[in-house]
Amino acid sequence: MTQAAVARSHMIDCQLRPNEVNDERIISAIEGVARELFVPKAKRSIAYVDEDLDIGEGRFLMEPMIFARLVTAAEIGPKDLVLDIGCATGYSAAVIANLADAVVALEENEKFATAAEKKLSDQGVMNVAVMNGKHRDGVAKQGPFDVIIIEGMVEDVPEALVQQLKDGGRLVCVKLEGGVGRAHIVKMEDGVASVRNLFDANVPLLPGFEVEKGFVF
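Structure for Protein-L-isoaspartate O-methyltransferase, as requested:
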């Protein structure tokens, strides 16, 4: 077993399983993706640390435990179409691809979108389409989606994104409220969206979801 594989196994046993991530489909999906290949070469030795990993240009891979708990809450099924917003270099999309029928991976940083497309192709991940576009806009023309996952903390969830959910669809994210991050799930039922808090979770802000500050006299 390689050093990276040992680190991946340690991450699963010490970070995920003790924190309510015990669904074997999700464990297998994470175990099947070499996280170290989606980070800068200089960071590969710390790819599995239990914190958000800086990958440059103000972007991060979400802490493994928070990411895994969001994926768990999303209840992704094998026939689901998933929108992965802020996919960065493609790690999250690669994991989700092991759970879903198809993934649309949206990334507004063109450099990262290009990297994600290459890395996913190199890893033989064939059921992900990487798209370069604004995070907050989503990809309505590819929807509606069974699941939408936002890969970072947001100040708000645009209604336009919620409307890209199918009936019965779920959106999971970490939202900043009163200076504290909380994981949220939005469920669409009969055209009505309901919101529920899941757990406290502080992760870096994802660009593109900033709330415009009003002019103050």
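The chain is about 25% helix and 30% strand.
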